Amino acid sequence: MMSVIDLSCIKMVWLRDILRYFRERSQLYGSLARPVLWLFVLGMGLRGSYGRVQDVDYTQFIFPGILAMTAIFTSVQSAVSIIWDREFGFLKEILVAPVPRTSIAVGKGLAGTTLSLIQGMIILMLAPLVNVSIPWLNILPLIGVIALLSFSLTGIGIVIAARMTSFQGFGTIMNFIIMPMWFLSGALFPFDRLPGWLTVLVRVNPLTYGVDLIRKLVLGFSYQPPLLDLLFLVGFSVITTAAAVFFFSRGEY
Amino acid sequence: MNLSIEVDELHREFRGFTAVDHISFSVDRGELFGFLGPNGAGKTTTVRMLSTLSRPTSGSARVAGFDVVHQHDMVRKSIGIIFQDPSLDDRLTARENLRFHAMIYKVPRKEVGQRIDRALEWMQLSDRADHLVRTFSGGMKRRLEIGRGLLHSPGVLFLDEPTLGLDPQTRARIWERLLDLRKTIGTTLFLTTHYMDEAENCDRIAIIDHGRIVALDTPARLKGRVQGDLVRLSTADDVSAADEIRGKYDIEVLEESSGLRLEVDDGAAFVPGLLRGLSVPVLSVSVRQPTLEDVFLRLTGREIRDEEAGEKDRLRSRIRRMGRAGR
Ligand SMILES: Nc1ncnc2c1ncn2[C@@H]1O[C@H](COP(=O)(O)OP(=O)(O)OP(=O)(O)O)[C@@H](O)[C@H]1O
Ligand SMILES: [Mg+2]
Q1: How far is the CA of B20 from the centre of ligand 1 (A)?
Q2: Whose CA is nearest to atom 25 of ligand 1?
Q3: What angle, 0 to 180 degrees and rounded to 10, lies between the N-to-C axes of helices A58-87 and A136-163?
Q4: Residues in chain B within 8 Å Cβ distance of A96
Q5: 3 state SS of B58
Q6: Is A112 a domain residue?
Q7: What proportion of chain A, given as a percentage, has pLDDT over 90?
Q8: Tell me, what's the pLDDT at B306?
Q9: What is each CA distance from A61 to A132, A219, B248, B280, B325, in whole angstroms?
């Protein structure tokens, strides 16, 4: 039997994604434009009408949310490139090779995580522009949390890609699952001001705990105990990784 | 063990539709074995099962001595495959495609550079090695795929319509490489095609139609199944000419839209007498040796390439040429 972890396969899948990312400049700029736009346009636009939350202004408040958004969208998108690979045939080349599918999925997950960390770092560098100063000691844990969140979301992306045969379906998934999950993660508004039924949705949303933890590390306050956040986040990543491996291994392509 | 591929009652259904219907055959080590059949015959489905990409509904197959279902990782290590549809990453260069292939097939690190250079040279792509594959022509992409399929020195190479949609010159070039490969390395080659002239190059051919193998033999012996020579005849009145010939000679006369078709032992000797004796004016006549096309027609009652199939191929080769243009 093949072992489940095949390092050269993981490396190949990872390296290919990274190589292509840096080769496609437009994709790189495009994926940075969105968070920057949200941060400055939405942040500045709503700052006046929002007042202050927990002693920070609105731009500062959404900064952790924008960081989370970068991670969420970059990683899902990166994983979903599997659909492209199927469409254009390259997936067959990997699937017919003597490598375990688990390792292919893990390679994809690590690639998505790497890319979202790279983007996240760029966003982090914008922090001084919106008067956010992150304690130095929190940087490393922050990278860890973003990595964990990203890895979980590539898992979701892989499940989507494994189940989805066309790109039309992909747009639907993005609009009906990923977008709402982000909106309902407390990234854009403090959820203690929401009506009760919305609070329920926010609380069952796994992203909420990731965003909350990032907020704790960036702004110094959170709505849940950070340890609880971390527990949820770890649980979430275990579940999505298992789901990714399961669906990706099972599919016939 | 001298059998490279052993197939036993292999069967595949898609929601009740039978794509491959209990086929059995075997391929010797080092043999060049051809699967000849029209569109939809089940060629790709068979290749996919033999290369472990899809599971048989029933039956079994062994490739390089390993069971394709239960030992699929061993099978994968032993084979190379050229898919019918494109499978390169055309956002990468030729060399990068090869290097990634070497990585997942665990080609020893010391050998990688040398093997890649050799593959590029062998497929006459050295000068384009560091160009993005999306800038390649269809023929260059195909050659690169073949070079890649061979990079890890597989014992068995599957080629699913390796020359589909390519111009005759490129086809000839690819064939030259394949025949060279067989001579120098002795790789077992399993290829599917619906080009008759390509099938002629094979040691043995299985003719497949509607998922069933209808004949399996060497090209020469298959052609031997059609008696003697074929005479094609067009006359002012084909129907009465056909009746007249049937009355005079004890042979079968096929009425086709383009004229009459007869199978006789010795065409050159037969025609002068026929022309002298026939009361209907003859417009044209031709005599030729039977081809695999005739064998196919005889076995299945159809031409291998019908109009519809031609359309589908043109579309396919266009998609192949366009590559990722839509992206
Ligand atoms: N995934 C699938 N789902 C349903 N039907 C399928 C599937 N794959 C193949 N078929 C059907 O099985 C039959 C055989 O298809 P296959 O691709 O093996 O033919 P082929 O001989 O390779 O033809 P071509 O020369 O066009 O490549 C066809 O009728 C096809 O429609
Ligand atoms: Mg086919």
Answers
A1: 9
A2: B39
A3: 40
A4: 51-53, 76, 79, 81
A5: strand
A6: yes
A7: 46
A8: 52
A9: 9, 8, 101, 98, 43
Residue B318 has pLDDT above 70, yes or no: no
**Closest CA of chain B from A96, distance in Å:** 6
Using DSSP's 3-state secondary structure scheme, residue B235 falls into: strand
Q: How far is CA B175 from the centre of its chain?
A: 12
On whether residue A1 sits in a domain, the answer given is no
Please, are residues B128 and B281 in contact by the beta-carbon 8 Å criterion?
no
Tell me, rounded to whole angstroms, the distance of Cα A218 from its chain centroid.
17
Show Cβ contacts of residue A153 under 8 Å, excluding neighbours closer than 6 positions.
A71, A72, A75, A76, A79, A112, A116, A240
CA distances from B124 to A235, B117, B169, B234, B321 (A): 53, 10, 14, 48, 19
Query: How is residue A212 written in tokens?
Result: 């909350």
With 50 as the cut, is the pLDDT of residue B222 above it? yes
Q: Name the phi and psi angles at B61, rounded to 5.
A: -150, 145
pLDDT at B324: 40
CA torsion, ordered B166, B170, B175, B181, to nearest 10 deg: -120
What tens digit of pLDDT does each residue of B236-268 get? 888 888 888 888 888 888 888 888 888 888 888
Q: Which of A91-95, A140-144, A188-192 has the lowest mean pLDDT?
A: A188-192
Q: Does this complex have an ipTM over 0.90?
A: no
Query: What is the structure's pLDDT at A222?
Result: 87
User: Considering only CA atoms, which residue is closest to atom 12 of ligand 1?
Assistant: B19
Going by pLDDT thresholds of 50, 70 and 90, the confidence category of residue A49 is: confident
* Cβ contacts of A24 on chain B, cutoff 8 Å: 91
Is residue A2 in a domain?
no
Q: Specify the number of domains making up chain A.
A: 1
* Residue-number span of the structural domain to which A199 is assigned: 7-249
Tell me if chain B has a CB within 8 Å of the CB of A90. yes
Task: Give the position of tokens 């491959």.
Answer: B20
The answer to whether residue A33 is domain-embedded is: yes
DSSP one-letter string for B127-142: GGTTSBGGGS-HHHHH
State the Cα angle at B13 between B7 and B16, rounded to 5°.
155
Question: What's the predicted TM-score (pTM) here?
Answer: 0.86
Is the CB of residue B206 less than 8 Å from the CB of residue B46?
no
Structure confidence at residue B144 as a pLDDT band (50, 70, 90): very high
Could you count the other beta carbons within 10 Å of the beta carbon of residue B235? 21
Rounded to the nearest 10°, the torsion over CA A77, A83, A87, A93 is: 110
pLDDT tens by residue, A221-245: 888 899 999 999 999 999 999 999 9
